[in-house]
Amino acid sequence: MSKVEKVIKTTQNHYLNMYDLETLNKNGHQGLYHVASRARDVAELKLNTHVNKPDGVIIYALYGEKRDRVVLIRQYRFSIGDYIYEFPAGLVDEGEDYHQAGIRELKEETGLAFHPLEVDEMYSRPFFTTIGMTDESCAAVYGTANGKLSKDGLEDGEEIEVVLADRTEIRRILKEENVSLVCAYMMMHFLHEDPAEPFGFLNLKER
C-alpha cells in the first residue's frame, strides 16, 4: 500500500495552507504530492487524525411557502476569473456544529433566515470535496429559508449576488452558466423532484 513518509508545511496563511507530502507508492517509487488544507498545522491534517471533521457547510435551502425556488449565489471567484453559481456555504467555526454554521452563513451571505431540517446521518455527514487537491470536507444542511434579501452581512472581499431560482431559471443556468459540481447535481435533482415533496429524497424530522 502507498504511504506518506514525511509532511512539510510550506505556507503560513489563516484560512488555507499548502503541504508537501513525500510519498512512497505501492511499487516502492518515491514522489512528491502537494495538498491544500484548512488544517492549521501538520498534526491537524486528516491524513494524521483520520477524523473526518467538517471544515465547511453547504446550504441547500428552498425559498417561499411553495418551496419552489432554490437559494443560490452568483459569486466572483479569482480561481476562474469569472462568476459561478454555487450554494451558500462557509467554514464551520470552532465550537459550532454545521447546523448552526448553516444558519449563520445563510444570514451573512443572503440576509435570509434558514430553518434546517433534521435528516438521516447518511445525508448530512461530511463528505470530501476535491480529494485530489485537498483534504477539505463539507457537510450539507437542508431546509427552508424566508425573509428579505440583504448584503449587510457580506465581507468586503465577497462579491455575491443572491438568486432565488425557479425551475425555469435553473434550466437556463445549467445550460449557460458556470456552476459548481455539487450545486449542479442538486439543481438537476430539484428539477425532477415532485413539487409537492421537494425534500422527498430525505428522511425528514423537523428540527
List keywords for this structure.
9-stranded mixed β-sheet; Nucleoside Triphosphate Pyrophosphohydrolase; 207 residues; 3-stranded antiparallel β-sheet; 21% helix; 36% strand; alpha+beta; 5 helices; elongated
CATH architecture of the largest domain: Alpha-Beta Complex
Class per helix and strand makeup:
alpha+beta
Number of E-state strands: 12
Largest sheet: 9 strands, mixed
- Fraction of residues in β-strands: 35-45%
Radius of gyration: 19 Å
**CATH class membership of the largest domain:** Alpha Beta
The count of helical stretches stands at: 5
- The averaged pLDDT comes out at 94
Outline of the structure:
21% of the residues lie in helices and 36% in strands. With 207 residues, it is α+β, with helices and mostly antiparallel strands. It folds into 2 domains: 3-49, no CATH class; 56-206, Nucleoside Triphosphate Pyrophosphohydrolase, CATH 3.90.79.10.
Describe this structure in words.
The protein is of the alpha+beta class. The protein has two domains: 3-49, no CATH class; 56-206, Nucleoside Triphosphate Pyrophosphohydrolase. 21% of the residues lie in helices and 36% in strands. The chain contains five helices and twelve strands. It has helices spanning 46-49, 98-110, 121-124, 167-176, 181-192, and strands at 3-9, 17-24, 30-37, 56-63, 69-77, 82-86, 89-91, 113-118, 127-128, 137-146, 160-165, 205-206. Strands 4, 5, 6, 7, 8, 9, 10, 11 and 12 form a nine-stranded mixed sheet that branches. Helix 4 (167-176) runs antiparallel to helix 5. The longest helix is centred in the middle third of the chain and has 13 residues, at 98-110. The protein is elongated. Residues 52-187 form the Nudix hydrolase domain. One of its GO terms (molecular function) is hydrolase activity. Keywords: Hydrolase. Pfam families: NUDIX. InterPro entries: NUDIX_hydrolase-like_dom_sf (IPR015797), NUDIX_hydrolase_dom (IPR000086).
